[in-house]
Amino acid sequence: EIVLTQSPATLSLSPGERASLSCRASQSIGTYLAWYQQRPGQAPRLLIYDASKRAAGIPARFSGSGSGTDFTVTISSLEPEDFAVYYCQQRNDWPLTFGGGTKVEIK
Amino acid sequence: QGQLVQSGAEVKKPGASVKVSCKASGYTFVAYGITWVRQAPGQGLEWMGWISAHNTNAKYAQKFQGRLTMTTDSSTTTAYMELTTLTSDDTAVYYCVRAAALDWFDPWGQGTLVTVSS
Hints:
heterodimer; A: four-stranded antiparallel sheet; B: about 120 residues
């Protein structure tokens, strides 16, 4: 099973600041990584797929990068609606797995 | 783009079973599959399994083998997830998501809260 480790667990930032979230895979997964955002009380939604492609309707302030085992999602300037939990997920092999999540909270 | 609408919240006793439905619309149902993901209170996301809506192909997470059954009905474009022998550890929100095999999850259903309590 491919284990995804996200860091940090919590990120405390102010609106307008830049956020960088990390996801590390236990083995190489190419670019078979996605990022999801989950706001409180809502279902997750797809943000980034194939490591760097924005899903439909996702603002340009979100960007993804990485390949192999190390991945990052960056929010260039935090908006109030971006304070949420972010999960990475791999589709390289079964079983599909998620990282433990990073909570981006208001400082 | 597609939409998934799930059945309502359930309260079950330990040892019982639960069956959650997921009605798909707005896309060609048999061109994709359905993934089931659950989220215990205050916890992260856990992949449970995936089933094709085209044939009987399915993948199950090992921890749910023997206790989880996923099915689809193309005539009603509805997917079902049945979990048996429930314990308090199964208390969670259960999500269905459209996904092809080894694919991304999009869109998500609204979630179904299953509470297991005596």
